[in-house]
Amino acid sequence: MSEHIGLIEQRKAKRLLLAQQKKPPTQLLERPWISIKDDGPTQFSVKIMTWNLLAQCLVRRELFPTSDCLKAHQREHLIHEEIERQDADILCLQEVDRLEKLCPMLEKAGYSHQYASGPNKKHGCLIAFKSSLFSLSEHKIVFYDDEEISPDGTPMQKIGQSFVTRNIGLIVGLQRLDNPDLGITVATTHLFWHPRYTYERARQVGILKREVTRFGQSDSLRQRWPSVLAGDFNFTPPDPAYSLLTRTTLLPEHEEYLRPSYVVHRSVDSTVPLSPSQPAAADADEGGGAEAQDPDRVITNARMASPSDGLLDSVGLVKLYSESPEARSAYDAALSRFLQLEPGQEVPIYGSTPERNIDPAHPGFHEPAYTSYTHYWKSVLDYIFVLESDKVDARFTGVLAPLPGNALEPGLPQKAICGSDHLPLVTEVRFNSL
User: Which residues lie within the region annotated Disordered (predicted)?
Assistant: First the structure.
C-alpha cells in the first residue's frame, strides 16, 4: 500500500513539474514603486489597482500590428502574473471576459469579486477585493442608458443622452473585517469609447459620481466611508469631463470642445437616416483599442441635437456634477507632491510630454505620461479618483511608477512589458476620520 501511495505522489509531482515547464516563462518589465513621505494619523490604508485587461473578444490584429502577444494563451498568464505581482487589496478591472480563466486565479490569490456587464456585452467590469480584509456589504450596477439627468420632460428628455452605449458603472461597498465600522465605497467603469462623443462621456461620469454619492449616503455606516472611482474613462486631462470631475467647472475651451458632440445618434432616435456606406452597428463596434485605430473618427448616423432632446448645456453639466463632491486624482496628487519633495527626480508625467499643451497649474498635469500605448494610439485614459469628504481625510502615499514612451515601444501588448494595451495603475492611500 505504501509503495502504491508513493507511486501516486511521484506521478503527481511529475505532473506538477510538467505543468510548470509548460507555463511560458515571462520577463515582465519591472516598474518601481514611488513612495511619498507621510506622517499623518491613519485609521487604515488600502492599495488599489485599476486596469483595462483588453478583452480577448475585442482583439483584432489590424489594431495592434506590432504586438507579439494577441492570442489568449500568450496574454493571460502575463495578466495573471501582473495582478499577483502588484498584490493590491482592491482591483478594478475593465474589459473583463474569459471569466472561467480569471476567476479561479483571483480566488487562488485570495480575492472575492463582483462582476457586471452591459446588456448583450461579451465583456464587463469586475471589482475584486482581498477576502482576508473586506466583506461585500452591497453592490449596485449603474446602467447609463437608463439614468435620468433632468427631473422634467419626456422620458427621452429626462435621460438626455446622445448615444445608446450599453456602458455601465459598478459600485460596491466593502466593509473591513477587523473593524466593521470602517470600509470603503469603490466604483469602476469603462466609459464610451468613441473619441468624438465628448458630451456622452461627460454625462456618464457625472451620473457615476452622483450615484456613488447616493450609494454612500443611503447607509449610516457608508456615510462615513471614503469613495473611490477608478477605471478607463476614455478621456484625457484636458477633457471637459476631467475638469468637471476635479473642479466642477467648464472653461470656454471646454465648451468649444464639447460643442461638436451635441448630437443625437440613430440608436437614440430611429428616425435619423443612415449615413452613406456607414451601418449604424459600426458606430458601436468598440473593438480592442478601437479608438487606437482611428482617433479622428467622425460622427456618423447622427443629427445635431435640439433643446427638445434634453442634452445638458454647460450650465446643466456643472449642476449635475455639483450634486456630489469633487474628485481628486491619485496620480496627479501623488506625483505633484513627490516632485515637490524631490525636485531633482525625473518622472514621466503627462505635462512633461512636449506635444501636450497643458498649464502646469491645470489639474491633470501630473498624471502619468501614458496609460495606453499602442502602435496607433498613445494617451492617458485611466485614472484613480477619491471623492473629497468632510468626514474622511485621504492621503496618497505611493504609486506604481509611470513608464516613458520609449519603454513601451513598439506598442502594447508586448510579452516583455504588458499583456494589455493599457498599463495598470496602482496607488496606496491612507484614510483617517475627521
Answer: 273-294
